[in-house]
Each structure stands twice: as C-alpha cells, then as structure tokens.
Amino acid sequence: MEPIGDSSSSENNNTNSSSMMMISSASTSSMASSSSSPPALSRYESQKRRDWNTFGQYLKNHRPPLSLSRCSSAHVLEFLRYLDQFGKTKVHNQICPFYGHPNPPAPCPCPLRQAWGSLDALIGRLRAAFEENGGKPEANPFGARAIRLYLREVRDLQSKARGISYEKKKRKRPPPTLHQQGSSSSAAGVLPMPPSSSSGANQ
C-alpha cells in the first residue's frame, strides 16, 4: 500500500496543473479575441461614414434614383438645399428688423438654415469619402467649382444676415525666447562689444 500523503499530494498536483492549463487557455483566447477586434473609429471617421451613408440614401430616394457614377455637382447642390430643412441656424431676411444683428432681442419668423460652417465641413468629408470609395479625384462632384461658389455665397449671405464675420483669425506668434533672440542676433551679424578703454588702462 502506498502512503496516504503521497496519493493526496499527487491529486493536488494534478488539480493545480489542470487549473493552470484552463487559465492559460482562457487568457490566450481573450488575447486572440482582443487582437482580432477592429480598432475603434475616430470621431471624424465615424461622422464621415454617417455622412456618406446619408448621401447614398438620398441618391436611392431620388426620383429617378441615381447611381454614384451619374452624380454631378448639380445633384450635390440639390442635396445641400435639401438639408436646409433640418437646419438650426436663424438666417434673417433683409426686411427683418434684426437683419445684421448678431444677438436679436426677440424671435422672428425668418427661416432656419444649415450653418455655413456645417456645410463646409460636410463637403470636406464627402469629398474625401468619394475618393476612398473608388471615385476618381478629377471626377469628384464635391470638389467642383460650382460647389465652392455655392459655399462662398452661403458664407457671405449668412455673414451679412447674422451680423457675424467668418474670417479666420490670424494666430498671434509667441514672443521669441532668449535663445531664439541670441541666435537671431548672431545670424544678423551683430558683433560682440569691444573691451572698454578703462580695462586696457588698468593693465
């Protein structure tokens, strides 16, 4: 007969080895699943995908339905005007007493439109998505001259109607550091100060 202690220790060893194998296999499977999962999209990429799907749905609902290969800048302009019904930016008419007022003190019946900044960013995303989905850059309807002119017209109209400026502010350059000042002075050919005459007299 074998001692009882020896049999129990062997059973414990078998149990520990089997549990370690289960842990290692579980960790291996979790690592494999994490490595196979696709990376999360950035906010820009997610918005670009949603915009592209929205435009594709607009082409399907068009009467008659349009394919992407037949899409022109005229259809893009129709899409932009279609989006105006979902806008949230108040654009005052010229007869409105608040025309050109950046902060109107009371409500008015002027229509809501898509803001110029939103349309400009939208066109940028769709222009990139078009080429990422197989479109040729020279045939990109989102980069056509008619689209640029329309966006410029919307910008000018909304700027006057809302009394705000869309001009980009120039960034102020930070003041140069002492190291930059020293390097610039040496580069400019500034010679070092000669020794004073008093020091020569003392010698």
UniProtKB/TrEMBL annotation:
GO cellular component assignments: nucleus
Keywords in alphabetical order: Developmental protein, DNA-binding, Nucleus, Transcription, Transcription regulation
Low complexity composition bias: residue spans: 7-37
An example molecular function term from Gene Ontology annotations: DNA binding
Entry superkingdom: Eukaryota
One BP term from GO: response to light stimulus
Major location (coarse): nucleus
Biased segments, Polar residues type: 178-187
Compartments (UniProt record): Nucleus
Residue span(s) of domain ALOG: 43-170
Residue numbers spanned by region Disordered: 1-46, 161-203
Family according to the record: Belongs to the plant homeotic and developmental regulators ALOG protein family.
Classification via PANTHER family: PROTEIN G1-LIKE2, PROTEIN LIGHT-DEPENDENT SHORT HYPOCOTYLS 3
Identification of the protein by name: ALOG domain-containing protein
